[in-house]
Amino acid sequence: MKAARFIVSVLCVASLLRADVVQPKASATAEAWEEANAVHVVQLVQGNRLQRNYPDALTSLLEEINEATTLRVAPDPIYIETFDDPVLFQHPFVYVNFADREDWTLSEAEIDALRDYFDRGGFMFFDAGINAAFLREENGSYGQFHSFAEWQVSPVLADMFKQVYPDKEFQPLPRNHPLFTAFYRGLPDATILPDAVRDYVVNEKWPQGTYAAMGVTVKGRLAALAMPILAMGWGKNDLDQWTTFIGFRIREGAEGLSERLAEAAYTGVRFETTREDGRQDVIYTQQKAMPAWVQEPDDSWRVFRYYYTQEISDYAHTFYTRLGINVFIYAFTQ
Fold first, then answer.
1. Which CATH number is correct for 28-244+310-333, 3.40.50.300, 3.90.1150.10, 3.30.870.10, 3.40.50.12140?
2. 16 contact partners, CB below 8 Å, separation of at least 6
3. What sign does the dihedral 142-152-148-78 (CA atoms) show?
4. Residues spanned by CATH 3.40.50.12140 within the chain?
5. In angstroms, what CA-CA distances link 25 with 28, 67, 119?
6. Is-contact 259 79, C-beta < 8 A?
7. Could you tell me where the beta strands, DSSP code E, fall in the chain?
8. What is the pLDDT along the chain (334 residues), one digit of tens a residue?
9. pTM over the 0.85 mark
């Protein structure tokens, strides 16, 4: 492939400050300097960019990054349609919503470009790159609206990356990985959550503010990251209101439940999903993309309950936004 110059941004990030730290108002000259020297994020969208998933998500997150930290990012991403676009080598961060590309068979030029990009220090975030099997069944769009913390990337993504690095695989990020504390630490204040869901969220769903994450290491650093969908929690409209309403899926147990569910009939489909420790959960669905109950590796059974309140939705948006900021800060400071 034709060699392209890869500009590695050397950022002044030694003092990434929180928004509540009062700073002097920048002069017009300083503001112009910031705009000229802001780092740009590249976004892959195959086809019509106006039809991309969550069109307000990434721009909303970039605005939050500028408000919450001293990292200066350009407010709009630079779009590419293929990985062999020379623009790729001018910017160190690429955001990809996995559903924004239909055909993940790479051309030879793309394979060479991606390998060169990662070898030179580039970072790529695959949003919705983790989709449990019941979210991929028949309609891949389910993975855009439902998040399930499976610890295995989508097979299509795994196969795609094998084209670039045949000897590398996505591996789980441990809970103590510095990505999860790159800027925000822990969960938002959970006291606003209903009692029925708080313990599960704090102890099982998002312990210590972590999330299901798989990554590929290149030359000793995290180069590619995949998570379940985050973009559904980022977008805001012109009135500064969240554009989505998010509910929680909670596992609940009860005395005698395991015995009853072991004998229960169901009309949906049975799936297996991978847990953090590599063991399998068996998921039983009654409706598409809506798990009804689960048989866990220790032979206990729990039902899935779904909770929808404004407090839950606001909490989820706050968490997803904080997690997104952590991903960006980690990528630009590692």
1. 3.40.50.12140
2. 69, 70, 71, 183, 329, 333
3. negative
4. 28-244+310-333
5. 9, 13, 40
6. no
7. 42-44, 78-80, 93-97, 123-127, 171-172, 214-218, 221-227, 248-252, 270-274, 280-287, 290-295, 301-307
8. 433 444 344 333 333 333 333 344 445 554 554 566 789 999 999 877 777 889 999 999 999 999 999 999 999 999 999 999 999 999 999 999 998 898 899 999 999 999 999 999 999 999 999 988 888 766 667 888 888 989 999 999 999 999 999 999 999 999 999 999 999 999 999 999 998 899 999 999 999 999 999 999 999 999 999 999 999 999 999 999 999 999 999 999 888 888 888 888 888 889 999 999 999 999 998 888 889 999 999 999 999 999 999 999 999 999 999 999 999 999 999 8
9. yes
What is residue 202's DSSP assignment?
I
Can you tell me which residue has the tokens 């924004």?
Answer: 100
Report the length, in residues, of the chain. 334
**Structure-token match 């969240």, residue found:** 242
User: Tokens at residue 143, please?
Assistant: 């993975």
Return the structure tokens found at 24. Answer: 């002097």
Return the closest-CA partner of residue 327 out of 84, 103, 129: 129
